[in-house]
User: Fold this.
Amino acid sequence: MGAKFKISFDADKSIRKIQSEYIKKAPDVIRDAMIQSMERGESPVKNGEWKTPYSLSYQATINGMVSFRYIGGKIVPLPYPDSIFGFGKKTTPVNLKLSGQLYSDLEIVPRGNSMRVQFKKTSEWLANIHNNLGVRTGKNFMGPLVKRRILPTNDDEDFNSSIQSKMDNLLRSIVKTFIK
Assistant:
């Protein structure tokens, strides 16, 4: 008679371990991916409104690189600030105080088997304005009213494909560690 042995597999236990690990690691991945989307001038919400993309000069200033000006009908990169060269009009540094506050107040809170993406109370009002009402853009905030969707708050909404892809990759990497 051959040797007999019993193999037991507790699928529920494995799923709980994977879920627990995902809940621990996902907040950082989601937060970083959301901030990367916003810095690119894209809505973190799939098909979300972000009507006016950031100008090249605004993007460059955010990244601390250069500013751009139209000179002779061409876009010309100039070291920031370009006013020291006497070209064009004086470049005003981008005020990132509110954006920085918004980014730092973004939190993903684990809640049992799920997570809640939210802003701390200090920035909740600003996020709601961007997400639902819209903000004035342009010099002295006299430009058009622009809605910028930050969070997928409606039942039919989800994160954009870039954020979803990063979340999927995280889950795959976690599952691979348990399958070894």
